[in-house]
Design a protein that fits this description.
This protein is of the alpha/beta class. It has one domain: Arginase, Chain A. It contains eleven helices and eight strands. α1 crosses α11, α5 crosses α6 and α10 packs parallel to α11. The structure holds zinc ion. The site of zinc ion (ZN) has 6 residues, from loops.
Length: about 300
């Protein structure tokens, strides 16, 4: 297993951080917590280009991602008149575009090695080519998938599995891939919270809707059953490993512990390894103080894979 990280993944928000419950330096915290494992860490080096993003977005979205009002709304921060688009771009959009490049790099390396690549950022599962919301601007998994097909690394006949274990339903992935029958989505989510879209929930191939307050034991049992329903011949798997499932998280509404999160990632990656499916883990959401601790515990649990 290799980690994908860049120091510029971190959101250095300055005063903006008081307007959002996001721990902007989470990625560097995780890295320092797993330093002793001696895992190799690679960087995407440069962010994904505007052309690559534009190739994925529809016409209206190409305009919206360059418009301060729409970007503010998607980031769920109040409108601040004196902040320019360039400032937002530098502080938030650039790190996100670097994360998109990280997910693409992870997918390429996972296909090369057949193993596990762990991108500390990415997993922007509320974005698609047609909308951006929930602190997600660019859908890294969909953009990576499109580029892999364009570059001949995957064909449209290749089956791909997305395992989304963030507390929120991955409406962006469900929408993006709804017509691609070879891309399957397993989604474990709190059905009582955002996003409540019935249309995208119906697109999930292996849905695991949970109610608020679900604890680790039930969560892991339901995930295990769902994994057994998936096929064994996927060419690649993406995981959206959000840590907003933690009991401390104010947004997710679930009751997992740090140990449960580590057991979850281990269960998923062991399942994929059993079937020799290359895997790319992406960060997903996670806004509590415990988030970095949970991610580092999960990496520790999976370090030998
Ligand atoms: Zn989430």
């Amino acid at each position: 297993m290799q980690l994908i990280y860049d120091k510029d993944y971190n959101y250095r928000l300055g005063l903006l951080q008081y307007l959002h419950p996001f721990e902007g330096e989470k990625f560097s915290q995780v890295l320092s917590m797993v330093n002793d494992l001696g895992l190799s860490v690679i960087s995407p080096n440069s962010m994904v280009s505007e052309e690559t993003i534009d190739e994925y977005l529809n016409e209206l979205m190409r305009l919206k991602v360059r418009n301060k009002e729409f970007v503010f709304r998607a980031l769920e921060v109040p409108k601040i008149p004196f902040i320019s688009f360039n400032y937002l771009h530098k502080k938030i959009l650039k790190p996100m575009r670097l994360a998109v490049a990280g997910t693409l790099l992870g997918a390429e390396r996972a296909l090369d090695s057949g193993g596990v690549m762990w991108n500390l950022s990415g997993g922007f599962h509320h974005a698609s080519y047609q909308f951006m919301q929930g602190f997600c601007i660019y859908n890294d998994i969909a953009i990576a998938h499109q580029q892999l097909i364009k570059n001949g690394r995957l064909s449209t006949d290749d089956k791909v599995l997305i395992i989304d274990v963030d507390a929120h339903h991955g409406n962006g992935n469900a929408f993006s891939f709804r017509e691609q029958t070879n891309v399957h989505l397993l989604d474990v989510y709190n059905e009582d919270i955002y996003p409540l879209s019935g249309f995208t929930r119906e697109q999930v191939d292996f849905p695991v809707p949970l109610t608020s307050g679900t604890l680790g034991e039930e969560y892991l049992a339901r995930l295990s059953s769902a994994l057994e329903l998936t096929d064994s011949d996927y060419a690649l798997a993406f995981i959206v490993a959000g840590t907003d499932v933690l009991a401390e998280d104010k947004l997710g509404g679930l009751g997992l512990s740090v140990e449960d999160v580590a057991a979850r990632e281990k269960m998923i990656l062991e399942h994929l390894q059993k079937h020799k499916i290359p895997a790319v883990v992406t960060g997903g959401g996670g806004y509590s103080k415990q988030s970095a601790k949970a991610v580092s515990a999960a990496i520790r649990a999976c370090a030998s894979l």
